[in-house]
Amino acid sequence: MLNARNVLTPEALAMMDVIARTGSFAAAARELGKVPSALTYNVRQLEDALDVLLFDRRSRQAKLTAAGEELLNEGRRLLEQVDAVANRVKRVATGWETQLTVAVDGAISRVTMFEICEAFYAQCPRGDDPDRSGPGTRLRLRNEILAGTWEALVNGQADLAIGVGMEQTPPAGVQLQTLGTLPFVFVVAPHHPLAAIDHAITDAELMRHRAVAVADSAQRLAPLTVNLLPGQDVFTVSTMPAKIEALLRCMGCGFIPEPMVREHIAAGHLVVKTVQRPQLNARMGYAWRGAVVGGARKPQMGLALRWWLDQLESATTRKALLQMHASRVPLGSL
């Protein structure tokens, strides 16, 4: 018996597609430039290798059996994958990475990030298939917190990190640029006990109340702890939205980026309080590592990463990444 892997070739699957589409072996043979007997022989080879009937011999038309329908559906999917692989190989040869991973800190605007992703997918490299939109590079976003954003880059799990602390010392091969300054405010719910205090809150007063904190996502680097007092009761969550929810529910108090809670403050859902300790303004940046995509004459950085870095050179984009947490940013402004 013939080996199924040897007969399930792209040519055989394409032949099945033509026979099903034209409705007869004769019509399919004319389209393929073959004699009907050659197609009949090839179909019998498929049937022998798979040990199934693909066409109903009782019909004058080329009517597929249930097994034939399944082979046709899966065959079409496999042919699409073959085409996709071929196109992806071509794109890699022209400098487009197969995948680009971006680590994003929890303080970065998700609205703006998705606006940039939309703009990235809207591209179509010259010479690519005109019926397919986008550069073909698979984007992967990683949500990280504090040192975890930097760790994802230096450990090779990300190609670009947005929202890293500017106090970091980049290793060889990693570039670091300023994104901007992110102001933090200390907030509580209106019915929190600290909301009634009319003076600058001392550390001793803070110690008597639970803090809400977001856990650092670093697995190997030393996790960062920001604005927590030794011995203070802490409610730890995994994301910035979860921290905001806890603050709104009066489950604790804490420091948080002002743009992320600006609308809650304006609506009176959260109250900004003055504290004695120095006000925190985080200097944030973005960092990347270059990717070799070919020989000596090829650029040392993939075209997808280069495109993202071009967007980050815009002052408007950098500001939106830090500030635009509630309102959508018009695509043309990025």
UniProtKB/TrEMBL annotation:
It holds the Pfam family LysR_substrate. It comes from the Bacteria. Keywords: DNA-binding, Transcription, Transcription regulation. Residues 8-65 form the HTH lysR-type domain. The keyword Transcription regulation applies. InterPro entries: LysR_HTH_N (IPR000847), LysR_subst-bd (IPR005119), WH-like_DNA-bd_sf (IPR036388), WH_DNA-bd_sf (IPR036390). Belongs to the LysR transcriptional regulatory family. This is LysR substrate-binding domain-containing protein.
